[in-house]
Design brief:
By secondary structure, this protein is α+β, with helices and mostly antiparallel strands. Helix content is about 55%, strand content about 5%. The protein has helices at about 35-45, 55-75, 85-95, 100-105, 110-120, 125-135, 170-175, 180-200, 200-205, 210-225, 230, 245-250, 255-260, 275-290, 290-305, 310-325, 335-345, 350-360, 360-385, 390-400, 425-445, 490-510, 530-545, 565-585, 600-610, 620-630, 635-640, 645-650, and strands spanning about 55, 140-150, 150-160, 240-245, 270-275, 405-410, 465, 470-475, 550, 555-560, 615.
Length: about 675
């Protein structure tokens, strides 16, 4: 029977769920709660050469990888019919693991692309090549994807979104401090090396270092026109419906009519141009940039996408830059892990189906559904009791809360991979076919009704999400394990860990971005102006609070309160809501309200919350994540977030002058 206390006939003895080895009891929880709750874990899990960051999340992800490898091995050991899913999984895995063939093939798998690009001469040909490169997944110049229509969330529409810079974030191209200059130099070195390895320099008749500089010039031009990350979080600024005629006025040289026809959407009449100024600049680049520079940019986009799937000279050069320089890792991940990721990326739901059959206990699903219901109820109480909102906005908020669609474990229907061809030519060719297969699948959904049963993560993923346009929260099987979810423990720690994760995802529907969508997922302002003002005022306090947090001395780096606002609101709300849910559960006798192993239920809750974020991290990774990640660093998710939570202050008796103290008037409570 269920382990839940409700209706349970046999009293199961549940543990406290607190592992004393994870704590550092020499640290004072009121001064540095992160060190207190995670110090033992951090000491016991020093970083190895392969990781630039390693935390409780990563332990699960690594464990899942081992489990996936086990599944792949057992699938491969059987005799499989040609073209079956099992055959596809094992063929792709074996191609990736066959280092002898990979070394022998060298740059051969990308040769056809290099030759084709080198032979381009006219602007028309350049444009058509961009179409082709996008379909194979290089993201040259921009990306096409399928997303809901923000005015009619029941329908999918085509979105055109900025991309096309090899280093990712525009800051790497535009910031002029010593660290970013070093990164750019290393990037040019990487491109030079790989242009030589690919032989494109010979085909183009230009020296590799010159080609590298040409690419950097093109990408810098693109970076300048890109929206920054903070603006990209604004759904109003990134939703710009355009008819094909309107699009032509902005960016005539892309020829969107031809573009969509080539993508398999000949009947398309309108789409969302997420960043019009950027797309306009792409059009100008296509019309005016030096032809050889655009060709070098294309060649690089193929090489950069392929490097991880070619011979070791490519793989290692790629690691030197993206691994060592960018994130501080000292050693490349073992081949089997990299290849498992590739199989997971190409055949994720097929692996997921085997994964849940083997590793996901059905009773975990039921206990999770109960937890979600308790969280939803607690969230409703918090809305009722909020002093900063009027009744009219509260009513709307509660309607939206009640409408949230909940997904737990794995999808009801699985994706069909029968159209994906995996064969024995080259590892890279299979990756291209998989990308093209995914692209066609994505395109097939455009201008059709949204499928609300679809999952945006595979079940083996150690993560969770909220999707504003379907107003749904999703908790894949992969995250429903300790330390998030401990079936053997009293629920105080589960409320602190997975409960806060649930509350976090629900709060995303009401964070600075999510609150702009209504219960049906349409971009639609349902707020009284005075309540919206109150929300923004409170949120700004959180922005200012995080902006003051120093991340690194050299280069001097502070947290980005604007970029991380949505996540910080979600953590703040998740903590408040889940704590409320735990109080309700204590009142019903479902959680042990007494001390266990020396800690009160409230203390166990906060230890479990912090424990989820136990991790070690290198400075380069801290810098990288502060640049690109919408989440705050793990330490800040504990030590900067918790002082806002009065229940935390009370549970540990934090006083003025303590490191974890924040005066009541400076604490932010939104949800
Ligand atoms: Zn989040």
């Amino acid at each position: 029977m269920a382990l839940l206390a409700t209706g349970c006939q046999h009293k199961t003895v549940l543990t406290s769920g607190i592992n004393p080895d994870n704590l550092d009891t020499t640290a004072n929880p009121v001064d540095d709660f992160y060190q207190f709750a995670c110090g033992g874990w951090m000491k016991a899990h020093p970083l190895d050469a392969e990781h630039s960051r390693y935390g409780a999340f990563d332990v699960l992800a690594e464990n899942n990888q081992e489990q996936l490898r086990g599944i792949i091995d057992s699938v491969s050991a059987a005799k499989n019919e040609k073209g079956s899913i099992a055959d596809k999984i094992s063929t792709l895995y074996n191609m990736g693991m066959d280092s002898v063939t990979l070394q022998k093939q060298g740059a051969e798998p990308i040769q056809p692309y290099m030759k084709e690009i080198a032979a381009l001469t006219t602007r028309d040909e350049l444009r058509m090549e961009m179409y082709r490169l996008q379909k194979m997944g290089t993201g040259a110049f921009f990306s096409l994807f399928n997303e809901a229509d923000y005015d009619n969330s029941e329908m999918c529409m085509a979105w055109i979104y900025q991309s096309g810079t090899g280093m990712g974030d525009r800051d790497y191209y535009l910031k002029n401090d010593a660290t970013n200059k070093e990164i750019r130099d290393a990037y040019v070195k990487l491109m030079t090396t790989e242009f030589q390895l690919s032989g494109y320099d010979k085909l183009a008749g230009l020296p590799a270092d010159k080609l590298a500089q040409m690419v950097l010039t093109v990408e810098t031009r693109l970076a300048k026109a890109q929206y920054d990350k903070e603006v990209n979080r604004d759904p109003f600024k990134t939703f710009n419906r355009k008819s094909l005629e309107e699009a032509d006025k902005v960016a005539a040289d892309i020829r969107f009519k031809d573009y969509f026809k080539d993508m398999g959407l000949p009947k398309l009449t309108q789409f969302n141009m997420a960043q019009p100024e950027y797309i306009q600049e792409v059009s100008r680049v296509l019309a005016t940039e030096n032809v050889e520079s655009i060709k070098a940019y294309y060649a690089w986009s193929v090489i950069n996408m392929a490097a991880g799937y070619l011979s070791d000279d490519f793989v290692n050069a790629n690691f030197e830059f993206f691994g060592r320089t960018m994130s501080g890792a000292e050693q490349i991940r073992p081949r089997w892990k990299r290849v498992t990721n590739t199989v997971d990326g190409a055949l994720g739901e097929a692996l997921g189906q085997l994964y849940v059959a083997k590793y996901f206990p059905p009773e975990a699903k039921q206990r999770m559904i109960n937890l979600v219901a308790n969280l939803q109820e607690a969230f409703g109480q918090r809305i009722d009791n909020a002093v900063w909102m009027d009744q009219a906005t509260k009513d709307k908020a509660k309607e939206k809360l009640a409408a949230i669609l909940v997904k737990v474990g794995y999808p009801d229907t699985w994706r069909d991979y029968s159209g994906l061809e995996i064969k024995n030519d080259s590892y890279f060719a299979n990756v291209v076919r998989s990308n093209e297969f995914d692209h066609a699948y994505m395109v097939s959904k455009i201008d059709k009704p949204v499928d609300r049963n679809e999952w945006l993560m595979t079940p083996q993923t150690v993560n969770a999400y909220y999707n504003p346009t379907t107003n749904e929260i999703c908790f894949p099987a992969g995250i429903l394990q300790a330390p998030f979810f401990d079936m053997k423990a009293d629920d105080a720690v589960n409320y602190g860990a997975i409960g806060v994760v649930i509350g976090h995802e629900m709060t995303h529907g009401f964070d600075d971005k999510g609150r702009l969508y209504d219960l049906n997922g349409n971009l639609n302002d349902w707020w009284l102006p005075s309540d919206a003002e109150n929300f923004k005022k409170n949120a700004q306090v959180l922005v200012d609070c995080f902006n003051k947090v120093k991340v690194l001395d050299d280069p001097l780096t502070y947290a980005n309160g604007e970029l991380t606002l949505g996540e910080n609101i979600a953590d703040n709300g998740g903590l408040h809501i889940s704590f409320q849910a735990m109080q309700n559960a204590i009142a019903k006798g479902q959680v042990n309200g007494d001390a266990m192993d020396g800690y009160t239920s409230a203390q166990r809750f906060f230890i479990a919350y912090a424990g989820v974020w136990a991790s070690n991290i290198r400075e380069k990774a801290m810098l990288q994540l502060t640049t690109i990640d919408v989440h705050s660093l793990a330490r800040n998710r504990v030590n900067v977030t918790l002082p806002h939570v009065t229940e935390f202050i009370e549970a540990w008796g934090v006083k003025e002058g303590n490191g974890m103290w924040l005066a009541p008037e400076n604490r932010v409570t939104l949800w």
